[in-house]
Amino acid sequence: MSAGQVAALVAAGAFVLLVLLLAIPLIKLGRTLDEATIALRKAHENTDPLLHGANDTITHVNTQLERVDGITANAQAVSGNVSALSSVFTATLGGPLVKTAALSYGISKAVKARRNAKAVDSGKHSRRRKGFRR
Question: Which parts pass through the membrane (predicted)?
Fold first, then answer.
């Protein structure tokens, strides 16, 4: 064997060793990719019922929201009617009612003032003269 053949034999052995060392990570990477493929397949199979359930839930929520919209519209109509009714009440009865309340307050104040004046007059006999006020 010549020196060139020995060098070629050593280079071939080194190449085989390099291929064996690189084959181990490539095999592990292949297994990892196989497991990832299986996981993705299972996830894809499980998402169909999940998406179907989510679609049913969204449909149910939309139905409930339509009911809430109807209730809100009715409540708005009721509040408008109450506002109109209070305006009518204020316009028809509010003015006279306020005037009546003011009149009754004034009368009660006048009656109390007159009673207080009579009580003061009856308490002081000698010092006050009729027709003289302070």
Answer: 6-27
